[in-house]
Amino acid sequence: MADTVFSHIPALTFEGPSSDNPFAYRFYEADRVVMGKPLKEHLRFAVAYWHSLAMNGSDPFGGPTILRPWMAAGDPLAQARAKADAAFELFRVLDLPFFCFHDADIAPAGETLKETLGNLHTMADYLAEKMQSAKAKLLWGTANLFSHPRFMAGASTNPEPEVFAWSAATVKHCMDVTKQLGGSNYVLWGGREGYDTILNTDMKQELDHMGRFLTMVVDYKHKIGFDGQILIEPKPKEPTVHQYDFDCATVYGFLQRYGLQNEVRVNLEANHATLAGHTFEHEIATAGAFGILGSLDINRGDALLGWDTDQFPNELWTMTLSMYHVIKAGGLGKGGCNFDAKVRRQSFTPEDMVHAHVGGVDLCARAFLTAAKIIEDGRYDALLAERYANWQTPQAKAMVDGSMTLDAIAAKAEAAGINPQPRSGRQEQLENMMVRAIYG
Ligand code: XLS
Ligand code: NI
Ligand code: NI
User: How far is the CA of 273 from the centre of ligand 3 (A)?
Assistant: First the structure.
């Protein structure tokens, strides 16, 4: 095993809530059975290759601060191999079951499309080899169709057909590689699928092209027999001002318009939810209501900053409500919790990378355990059910089961002389109940 910056760190173990060892899990007891299966199977944590192995800490005001040996060593393919060696060492240390990547994270670009795709396959073979002796599996693969200047006006929505073609070729090969590595999902985040000014944008054409592109992705999935899920990751803005996949509800409308609502689900990200003016739990509950919850990108924004800061999560309230709605939606299935989160640029040591994941993993695990407890306890669900209880009568049901018309309801209401009385929404009582469940 090649020596990497993570090699000196022993694998993390579970030590329980009373431990103050910063290199141990306090809540994530992977094999603990909750609601019928082990915690690790509910949460399916993944490490994001781009933030944890490829990100170098640069920001618009300053250069790289996170300088790893693999960013400098040898030719681009040698660098990619060294990065992969370090990646699998990090997976060993964190002992999490999955990872995720973009093509550009694992393999260098070549001079031509052919060379770029060749590099991707070379590196996929290298990862396949490493996966034989490692525990980590692939949660999802994706294509980076936003960093290179050719994508400045979008990928499938680009006014230039050659960019559409380049994107199609890239996604085809990324799907092949995802299947080769046994991935559970294939993700499409519309990096620059949107616009900065309506003055240069034919929105109808761009949406139709994006819809056609996604249809071809779904067709190709069936053609190659990929049994993973196809997921769209909503985001309202950044990098473009108006991203087409604004939020979960917008994506659902898009899927319906192009007839893909039974083929594609969503990968929801916490920081994207807040950028859209929603909470993470709102987005998850929306996906649950539409039956399209696919997977989660775990992170958080900063309440004082209006962009995608992709920080590791540390807020128990929103994560617990999120996990509650995950459970109510039937769980994550083939999806998981991917840490689409990066350490701050002052956190440049390998140990910082471990602390970041320990905090995020423990927060999610604790939130999930509390959510499961709230459900098993039943009092909250009982209060919720009570609020809607009057809908259980046959007369009430008849108004919404398709058997009555608007005028029939009107006639009945007028004849009965109904006079609805206000009822408390009990917000503060419910909040107190949650505060007790979450914080004790
Ligand atoms: C960017 C996105 C990206 C996707 C994968 O904001 O979150 O990281 O998860 O392309
Ligand atoms: Ni993401
Ligand atoms: Ni993001």
Answer: 10
The domains of the chain, with CATH numbers, are 33-377 (3.20.20.150), 393-439 (no CATH)
Contacts 24+ apart (CB under 8 A), 300-308: 300/270, 300/271, 300/274, 300/341, 301/270, 301/271, 301/274, 301/275, 306/275, 307/238, 307/275, 308/235, 308/238, 308/271, 308/272, 308/275
**Half-sphere exposure in the Cβ direction for 285 (13 Å, CA):** 12
Q: Is 110 in a helix, a strand, or coil?
A: coil
Measured from CB, residues less than 6 Å from any atom of ligand 1 are 102, 142, 187, 189, 233, 235, 269, 297, 308, 340
Mean pLDDT, residues 214-235 taken together: 98
Catalytic annotation present for 222: no
Could you read off the pLDDT of 15-38 as tens digits, one per residue? 999 999 999 999 999 999 999 999
Identify the CA nearest to 39 among candidates 437, 371, 410: 371
- Mind listing the pLDDT tens digit for each residue in 58-82? 999 999 999 999 998 789 999 999 9
What is the overall mean pLDDT for the chain? Answer: 97
Mutation test of ligand 1: which of 53, 167, 189, 240 has the most ligand atoms closer than 8 Å to its C-beta? 189
282 is catalytic: no
State the pLDDT at residue 3: 74
Angle, alpha carbons 236-253-155 (nearest 5°)? 55
Cα 305 versus chain centre, distance: 21
Spell out the residues 6+ positions from residue 400 whose beta carbon is closer than 8 angstroms to its own: 391
Nearest CA to ligand 1 atom 5: 189
Peptide bond into 161 cis (omega under 30): no
Q: The whole model's pTM is what? A: 0.98
Q: Is the pLDDT of residue 149 over 70?
A: yes
